[in-house]
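for the writeup, i need someone to sanity check this before i put it in the appendix. the sequnce is what the collaborator sent (i think, or maybe the updated version? ugh). structure was predicted straight from it, no edits. if anything looks off just tell me and ill rerun, i have time this weekend
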Amino acid sequence: MFNIHDLTRNEFMLTGPFARQGYDWWWHSFTGVSRETGKERTFFIEFFVCNPALAESEPVFGSRDGKRKPSYLMVKAGAWGEDAVQIHRFFSLKEAEIRGKAPFHVRAGNCFVSDTELRGSVHVTPEEAEAHPEYMCGAGDMSWDLYLKKEIAYNVGYGAGKLFRSLQAFEMYWHAEGMKTAFSGAVVFNGEVYRVSPDTCCGYSDKNWGSNFTSPWLWLSSGSLYDAETGARLANSAFDIGGGCPKVFGVSLLRKLLSAFYIEGEEFEFNFSKFWNPAFTRFSCEETEDEIIWRVMQETNTAVVKVRITCPKKEMLLINYESPDGRKRHNRLWNGGTGKGTILLYRRTSSGLTPQGAIRADHVGCEYGEYC
């Protein structure tokens, strides 16, 4: 089973060596509806903490030669679509209040995140964005006041359990406390008000932490799923795929993914770390002139899944992060929230593969990049 909520995995993790070279982030994405036009817009909000032991009175930005490590709280917010944008706001970690133990919260200025609330604002002018390349963002204005209810979890198991967390064995950890999350409230984006409702928000929330990022880096997720034959909405369903090239104690495990499919109460998991039912994985990501295409095939002793997702490049971002050592290794990390595609699930039985139905997915959160 993987739908196991565990707020201790959402705690602040930057202790020991991770405090001097580590990051910890809480990610949220969801859809709102314009109060004025009735059109949808998909948003993201992230609280990103980097190298708290190196905090100074002002945010510290890294140097690309690795001689200076960054230290800050970055509040990243923005929207996907034909004018997709990421907007960053930075705080010194000396002015941030962090409650590390469950239930966690982070507060700086008017920005606040916890397991149940999300509030704040970001504002960057075109002149500021051009004058400060270290901000790694575009221009825009966004504020939000939201409540969260995390309904379906993806708990990856012992790999992010207490023992492996305390050993800081992995280079990058993942926990999705809300791979299906109900958001309610409002967002104001560049002066336009968007209402966010639990039934239409297509909400998602997770967390990553560690000492560095993975390459390749793949993520696919959606809670907006439909029976491909009947068109019926699968209201109690979501899927999540993440990974790329995990490292444990510095040793690369090559191309591995963790995946969970929760379909109307039934669980299908493909998790390389669960040795009693290990997953065999093949995946690819293709960039054409107009779109990004993900293909994933995974199988275990009990199930098989085939996933194909596409997203228009004009609706995506090349999302920006600098590594905790100060270098910026991901310079072509495609990130979007308007992907679409299909999922084919099968159960493996003694007589062969039994189809469990075809699923159509939209509002897919999607990401792919390799170091360059």
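The mean pLDDT is 96. Helices lie at 17-20, 126-131, 162-167.
thx in advance!!
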